[in-house]
């Protein structure tokens, strides 16, 4: 299935069928985010700021059978590379995702997302009295204790943030 952002149409998933290549069209230049844990394609779109109101063309595939994950989602964004900050956010919610850079229909770079040991300025602490919520110049900062299941420990107050807390903020 192909969704043009210009159409502003509803985002719909496609069901099971043979071979993902038949389901999602190839792109000439852009980024393919593969091996997204099933159910998180729309979260990835949100992270990338894809609202359906800009000109970029985006294809998504939902619930594709995958040997590694059982089921997976795929997002293809044409004419765009991801920023490191976007990749870090995707790593938080889809730790097995792979980012493929496509140039002239070929994969020119492929790498798995990887959470840095520390997450700074991306996720807010859920403790309202945490110093990072009170004093403006302090950046929210978390130590990554575990990527899967996601477990972040606030550097300042030790409050734990899990995947659900993070998803609410994206
Ligand atoms: Zn805190």
Strand order of the largest sheet: 1-3-4-2-5-6
Give the N-terminus to C-terminus distance in angstroms.
25 Å
Total domains: 2
Main beta-sheet strand count, sense and barrel state: 6 strands, antiparallel
* Contiguous helical run count: 5
The helicity comes to 10-25%
CATH class bucket of the largest domain: Alpha Beta
CATH architecture of the largest domain: 2-Layer Sandwich
Helix vs. strand class:
alpha+beta
Overall average residue pLDDT: 86
Low-confidence parts, pLDDT < 50 over ≥5 residues? Answer: 1-21
N to C succession of SSEs: EHEHEEHEEEHEEEH
Task: Say which CATH homologous superfamily of the largest domain is assigned.
Answer: Aspartate carbamoyltransferase regulatory subunit, N-terminal domain
Textual characterization of the structure:
- The protein is of the alpha+beta class and 170 residues long.
- The protein has two domains: 3-112, Aspartate carbamoyltransferase regulatory subunit, N-terminal domain (Alpha-Beta Plaits); 118-169, Roll (SH3 type barrels).
- The protein has five helices and ten strands.
- It has helices at 20-23, 41-47, 84-93, 131-134, 163-169; strands at residues 3-4, 30-37, 57-66, 70-78, 98-103, 106-112, 118-120, 141-147, 150-154, 160-162.
- The strands form two sheets. A six-stranded antiparallel β-sheet has the order 1-3-4-2-5-6, covered by helices on one side. A four-stranded antiparallel β-sheet has the order 7-8-9-10.
- It is elongated and about 50 Å long.
- Mean pLDDT is 86; it is low at 1-21.
- Bound molecules: zinc ion.
